[in-house]
Amino acid sequence: MQRSDFRYELPSELIAQVPPATRSGGRMLVVDPVVDAGAEATIDNFRDAYVVDLPAELRAGDLLVLNDTRVIRARLHGVKESGGRIEAMIERVLDTRRALAQIKASKTPKAGSTLLFADGGLTATVLAKHDDLYELAFETEDLLASLDAHGELPLPPYIQRTADERKSSASDDARYQTVWAREPGAVAAPTASLHFDEAMLAAIRARGVTIAFTTLHVGAGTFQPVRVDDLATHVMHAERLTVTAELAQAVADAKARGGRIVAAGTTVVRALETAAAETGIVAPYQGETRLFITPGYAFRVVDALLTNFHLPESTLLMLVCAFGGYQRVMAAYQHAVEQRYRFFSYGDAMWLPLRASQSSAP
Question: What is the spatial distance between Cα 255 and Cα 265, in angstroms, rounded to a whole number?
Fold first, then answer.
């Protein structure tokens, strides 16, 4: 498949710049299963609903899996000791002092150079460069605490607010985190989970649905464009994840009782499918994943997906097309544009059961 297969036209005004007034206050496009596996999706397969309708789409015995990663204050502004402004985006915290970061600067900083962030409140030394990332050593005993004190929340690059929008928006410190965020390490939020509030979780549990958690630390690579035309040559960025023995058992129990495995977001899909890569059965897993899911992929674990609307030609859209069927998902996106849904991180959601047929390529 080609990158251009996942292109669609999106009016800029549909890119959500602020979250909805309440977490569960967004819209939700329901993409119903196609009865005939060979049929293309039509408007009859789409229902315009709301996020608060999600519990009605779930069944007793289902397992809903959420990502409990926490977004760190990963963006730092500063200067090189030799002069010149820089911006660093922490991609991964390696230990209490070291991190890998993307750096924007007029001239590439060299190994051994000193970087001064937050008006000198936080200092780092460049240790080395690894591909596109710089390894930095910070003068601190607790890097995460120092980032909390001196860093900024790394909102996605497509959130570009006017002065009025900045005044009217809710606090990003709260709204760009899930209500259950607890494992620090992500530089972008698992956005499908931003729709959940405590009332929603209570309503889901009341329907007899079990809730469990995985951890996948979303990296800045999630916003990087696919730069090759032939997807077979794309190298996926690496992200860290943890699937516990408890989660693996919860998946096994749900499948044994006939329940569906429901993923809140593409990060959960990648975590569970990575953990099942060896045997087809979810097993405890801790490490990295570079799993790149495109149409034709045979899903082993996940049966239904709640997801936001993703950027054109992005790896996230490719995963959703693999899950729901290429024609079906691209038709749903066109419907969402026509119906003026809000797109991307602070946007609306789509509810998508697994496609009936595995052959979904265009």
Answer: 20
